[in-house]
Each structure stands twice: as C-alpha cells, then as structure tokens.
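Researcher: I'm comparing several assemblies side by side, and this is the next one on my list. It has 268 residues spread over two chains. Same procedure as the others: predict the full complex and return the structure.
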Amino acid sequence: MTIGLNHYLILGAILFALGLYTVLTRRNAISILMGVELILNSANINYVAFAHFSSASIDGQIYAIFVIMLAAAEAAIGLAIILAIYQIFHTIDVEAAETLRE
Amino acid sequence: MEIATVLFYVIAGITVASAAMVAFSRNIIYSAFSLLGAFAGVAGIYVFLGADFVAAVQMLLYVGGILVVILFAVMLTHRITDVQITNRAAGRIPALLLIGIFSLLVIQTIRESSWAKAKEIVYAPTAAKIGDLFLTDYLLPFELASLVLLAALIGAAVISRKELKE
C-alpha cells in the first residue's frame, strides 16, 4: 500500500487531537504553549500535504513557512509574558494568575 | 512492503509517540524534551512530502529555536524537583471524550471525502521557487512578516524586562 494524502491528514488529525488535549487539561502555562505548538505543526502538515498531493503549486509550503514564522513570534512573546507572570505571582499555574477576572 | 512505507510509519510513530508524551507526561521536563521528537518527526514528514526547504526551516526554527526557548522558560520558572505541582492536569475525562469524538469525526470525514488530486506528483528542489514567490506574489506578506518579527522582538524585550522601581 502506498502512502497517500489520507495518511498525512490522519497524522495531522492525531497531532491536533493531542495538542488540543494538552491545551485543555494542562494548568501550566508553558505546557499550554507546547500544546499550541503541536496544533500549529498539525496544521502545517496539512498545508504541505495538500500542496504536495492536491495541487501542482507550492503555495501550501509558503503558508507553512508563514505559520512557522508566526509560531516563533508567538513562542517568544508567550514565554516573555509567562516570565513576567512568574515574577509577579511566583507561579505559572493559569488558575492562580486570575487577578484580571475579578 | 516498500522501504519508504516502513520509514513513513516509523517516523509517524515517533511523531505521535512524542506528541502523546507531551500530552500525557507527568513531568514537564519530559514533556519539553519529547517536543524534540515531535518537531523532528514532523520535519521528516516534510521530507516525505518533497518539501525540503520547509523541513530545513522546521529544524532550524522549531528544534533550534522554539524548543530551546521553551526549555529555557521551563528551567527559569520551576523548582524542577517538584514534579507533583509542575505539570498539573485537570479535567482529563471530558477532554479525552472530546478529543475522542473529534478524532472519530475528522478521520471519518477524511476517509469519505474525495480530495482533488494533482495530475502528477513532483519531487523537485523547492528553495529557488519559494524564494521567487516570496519576492513576487507574496511580497506584501513577506514584508509584513518582517514587521511582525520586529514587533515581537521589541515586545518580548519590553515585557520580560525588570520593572524599574522609582
């Protein structure tokens, strides 16, 4: 059996589900960021897979590169915010840092 | 079975196992290091898809950049020995149910859909084409990306600096 588009899409779906689980269950802000990275990776797999199998162009790869770039910016900003929260609350548990909610 | 098929399943298996480790591990250090397997596995998948440049970018930016930044943050914010409180998880059962239903629906959809097929599948070097596209069709997004990166750079430096006490 040759590897087709469906294999890659299902791999992307599994990665997305695992990332979603991480985001939903973790209470640690850094772990939540890790889950977001997994989700972005799964989206990228889909972009590149569709570019490879469904269209002759490589536009999908360009989108994937933009997503990677935005993920890098997101990780830098997110971790800077987490460090700032840690300096104030001395924890990065997202349930502890809820001052804004009140 | 062809060797390419075996290789695909090995790489996909490593990717999924590492991602599962990220999702289910009790220790945040293990989670962070497992991300290495997930990111490198996805880079391997890109190689399978004939996307050599994207695979290189993935290795450089994810494995070399984002992973190091995440590990850095983990080391800076934790008493690493406190495994119990470092990686608390809540609401496991509803989340498992949710992603179970989600996976079933998505995989069902993927199986039933008839996707558009390219006339021929090509394996060619992509770096030159990507460079051309960035400087022609995608020039505006490309320039916007540089602005976003500049803003992220300044923002990260401003947010994470120490407040000056008057």
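Model: For your comparison table: Chain B has a mean pLDDT of 86.
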